[in-house]
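User: I'm putting together notes for a lab meeting next week and I want to include a structural view of one of the chains we've been expressing. I don't have a solved structure, so I'd like a prediction I can at least talk through. The sequence is below, exactly as it appears in our construct file.
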Amino acid sequence: KQWYQRRVRGDLTVGFDSNYADKKPRLPVCPGSHMITFSFENGCIATLRTSGTEPKIKYYTEIVRGPGALESEEELRMELGEVVDAIVKELLQPEKFGLKPRPS
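Assistant: Thanks for the context. Below is the predicted structure for the 104-residue chain, given as structure tokens.
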């Protein structure tokens, strides 16, 4: 799918942010943060980070559309859900690395 095209937008572990010409982040750099942000062609943004207190990988996702977007909120939620599923399957690879989802 078109949205699957991604790029690393920022890595606060090493101090990189592709949104700026100088590639320097505007947020504080923290070598222990292990925080990486990806941008997708469809306007989705996903930030993945490790927990500082527990053996967990956390992720935060959003989808951004401009004014006049034609999709309904339900359609956007479904699209974001597809991206989250792909992130888990393709980037985190739970089967390969023995990762377990949190209990529902």
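A couple of points you could mention at the meeting. The chain is about 25% helix and 25% strand. The helical segments are 73-92, 94-97.

User: Perfect, that's what I needed.
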